[in-house]
Write a structure and sequence with these properties.
Helix content is about 70%, strand content about 0%. It is mainly alpha-helical. The radius of gyration is 29 Å and the shape is globular.
């Protein structure tokens, strides 16, 4: 049972949210909206300000913390595509049939932006906002007025493009610190979960490890995504000493993740020996302490304070007492539990050392080693240019973006027809807006948004109704509107329930200000009714031309196998043996990133499939084994890499050179084979006829232990391939 958080921890958690990068970005967007709409209102009047604010709102969704390079081009498509559609809706607003004929194909085109992944989805939302909010503007009697409205929209959009670009540049230094702090907090959370793995299993207890494995996989996937977001900002042009220090800290996090993953090695064997329970308990407590140190470092970064010095726990690790192994009649080919316990303590010691260096970097007491990223940082960040390749590649019937675009167009067309038939019909765009923000490419995401939207709307209606009933002064309403916009944008990705509450308050208060004669009570009731209709339609149409995760799994599995094979091939290359710690390891770092990223995508797809009907789910059991074996393979290779980097002087190059090459080739051949494996036999890195004797690794040659790791890695590769074959076999086979 989890221990309830103390008031101090709850306060720290709240402050982390307030000082986060997404809240800073939300406040920046809201301030831009307030300044632009207020300035236009001052010089051009209320109507111009309302139209200009729509231009601003259309450009806000893609405005996220980003590198300075390419920020303007990231936002530009929202304005360029949104403007003609905004004007077209203005022209056709008086003709419902023509407007409906515009909405359906325009929605299809807008949602095609999903082909660009995470970068494209905000553009889809922006384009839909341009049409939906244009429907809220009163009808016009002449084309001249429509043209003027379009000019006001353009003014707001252009002003916000400049504002967002400049604000992102001004906040860049702060974003670097915030993104690093967020990454450290994700790492600390993963460390705490890993520490729970060290809990000895009671006699007769089974199955307690499975939930933790699932949680570990999800946290590993979340950390991989967070690391890439941090790379995009922290590794951009790390030329100044401060930027280099932050980039160096991020690279330390990458090493800590590897050592943390390696802590899984031999853990089940140790937990099966009750005599080592005291050691496991100490290591668990120590890992929790290190996680607390990492959290305090993250807090110090957010508060702008110098972190406190870190006292190494090396002496505590050195004083651990190992349980005596029972006498064995074996020949020494199997590692003793005591040696395995010392190995686990050594890996925790590496995490302790990395934490020590991480805090020393933050305090300016150590120099960062960023020679690699200082010259090749462009290879580690996501592209900022728009390419036509995703658009060209999506024109096949089973492509998820194409199906989602068709699905969204049908949903919007149906919703618009229903809105015209409703007896109230004063805010027909509310139903459309609900579909835009709820309907997502997967059923799991749609269900999550559906529930959050309904609950958030109800809560927002209560808050807005209370504010309107209290007759809050105009100035206070404007402040509340600004804060609501900030919250709605800040939590759109992080926690949509909060966004739904803020967006409802924002919409109802804006409607009240623009239409003072309308009854507030009716607005609230209408908002609830339209939201319920919208989420019902979004939910129903999520089953139209569905792109079940089962259809995406084969490509994700193939990507993961290819990434694992490449990582093994590069990590075990002979060049690593010759000059591991003094030459740039660009290829290996890129291979490692792809291995983690491919597994992250597969974990997320597997998690989403849990919300789908049982009949269309992928085979979850072999998928779970595949993911577990994938991380085990990474852990084994990390252990080999650690030996090569930190203990190369205790290796015999002549003894391990050939096995390294053979293991890399065997793993590559196993994972990239075109045909399923016929037998479960694994090629061995130890090709000698004699059984491999394992000496004490802390007192003698490490080469036999490296050969053991290579043997285990090749065996895991075979298991991984067999899991993949089971996942990929046709249903019913």
């Amino acid at each position: 049972m989890p221990i309830p958080a103390s008031p101090e921890r709850r306060t720290r958690a709240a402050l982390r949210v307030v000082l986060s990068h997404y809240v800073a970005n939300g406040l920046s967007a809201a301030l831009g909206l307030l300044l632009i709409s207020g300035s236009v209102h001052l010089f051009l009047g209320a109507f111009a300000a309302a139209a200009a604010s729509v231009g601003v709102v259309v450009c806000i969704p893609p405005d996220q913390p980003a590198p300075k390079r390419g920020k303007f081009w990231q936002l530009l498509p929202a304005a360029l595509i949104g403007l003609p559609l905004f004007i077209a809706v203005q022209v056709l607003h008086a003709n419902p049939l023509s407007l409906g004929l515009l909405l359906v194909p325009a929605t299809f085109i807008a949602f095609l932006a999903a082909a660009w992944g995470k970068r494209g989805l905000p553009i889809s939302v922006s384009v839909m906002f341009a049409m939906v909010f244009s429907m809220a503007v009163p009808d016009h009697a002449s084309s001249t007025t429509v043209l003027a409205t379009g000019l006001y929209f353009s003014l707001g959009a252009a002003a916000y493009l400049l504002w967002a670009t400049l604000a992102n540049a001004v906040l860049n230094a702060r974003y670097r610190v915030q993104m690093l702090a967020d990454t450290l907090l994700s790492l600390a959370s993963l460390m705490r979960t890993q520490a729970q793995q060290f809990t000895p299993v009671a006699t007769g207890e089974q199955g307690g490890r499975t939930p933790l494995i699932g949680q570990l996989l999800q946290q590993q996937a979340a950390l991989a995504d967070q690391l890439q977001a941090a790379r995009n900002i922290l590794l951009e042009s790390p030329r100044t000493p401060r930027r280099q220090r932050l980039a160096g800290m991020l690279m330390q996090v990458l090493e800590m993740r590897d050592h943390l993953l390696a802590c899984e090695l031999d853990l089940d064997t140790l937990k099966s020996h009750p005599g080592h329970a005291p050691v496991l308990n100490v290591l668990r407590e120590l890992l929790d302490v290190l996680a607390e140190e990492i959290e305090q470092l993250a807090d110090a970064l957010l508060y702008g304070r110098l972190p406190l010095p870190f006292e190494s726990h090396g002496p505590q690790l050195a004083s651990l007492h190992w349980a005596e192994d029972a006498p064995s009649a074996g020949d020494g080919t199997a590692p003793s539990p005591a040696v395995l316990a010392r190995g686990l303590a050594s890996r925790v010691g590496h995490i302790n050392d990395e934490t020590l260096r991480l805090i020393a970097l933050a305090r300016g007491e150590a120099e960062p080693d960023v020679a690699l990223v200082r010259t090749t940082w462009q290879m580690f960040v996501s592209p900022t240019t728009w390419s036509w390749r995703p658009f060209v590649a999506m024109w096949r019937w089973d492509a998820p973006p194409l199906r989602h675009a068709i699905r969204a167009a049908l949903a919007i067309g149906t919703a618009y027809a229903i809105s015209l038939a409703l007896p109230w019909g004063t805010h027909d765009y509310w139903i459309l807006l609900t579909i835009v923000v709820v309907l997502r490419g997967s059923l799991a995401q749609t269900l999550e948004r559906r529930n959050s939207r309904v609950l958030g709307t109800l809560m927002g209606c209560v808050l807005a109704g209370a504010l309107l009933s209290a007759h809050v002064p105009l100035l206070a309403l404007l402040v509340i509107l600004t804060l609501a916009q900030a919250v709605a944008h800040a939590f759109a990705i992080k926690r949509y329930l909060v966004t739904a509450v803020a967006a409802t308050v924002l919409g109802l208060l804006q409607t009240h200000l623009l239409n003072a004669g309308t009854s507030p009570a009716f607005d609230v009731l209408e908002r609830v009714a339209d939201t319920l209709i919208g989420v019902t339609l979004a939910w129903a149409f999520s089953y139209v031309l569905p792109s079940w995760e089962r259809s995406q799994i084969p490509a994700l599995v193939a990507r993961a196998l290819a990434a694992q094979a490449r990582h093994a091939r590069v990590a075990l290359a002979l060049g690593q043996l010759q000059a591991v710690d003094n030459e740039p390891e660009l290829e290996w770092r890129l291979a490692r990133r792809e291995a983690y990223d491919s597994l992250s995508a597969l974990v997320q797809a597997t998690q989403r499939s849990l919300s789908e009907p049982r009949a269309v789910r992928p085979p979850l059991e072999p998928l779970g084994r595949l993911l577990a074996h994938s991380y085990q393979l990474l852990a084994q290779l990390t252990s080999v890499k650690t030996m090569l980097m930190l203990r190369r002087g205790r290796l015999q190059p002549a003894q391990i050179r050939a096995p390294l090459m053979q293991a890399g080739a065997a793993i590559d051949a196993t994972l990239t084979a075109r045909q399923p494996l016929a037998t479960p036999g694994a090629p061995r890195a130890n090709t000698s006829l004699e059984p491999l004797t394992l000496p004490d690794p802390f007192e003698s040659d490490l080469s036999p232990w490296m050969l053991r790791r290579l043997d285990l890695a090749t065996g895991i590769a075979v298991q991984l391939r067999m899991d993949a074959d089971q996942v990929l076999q046709p249903a019913g086979a």
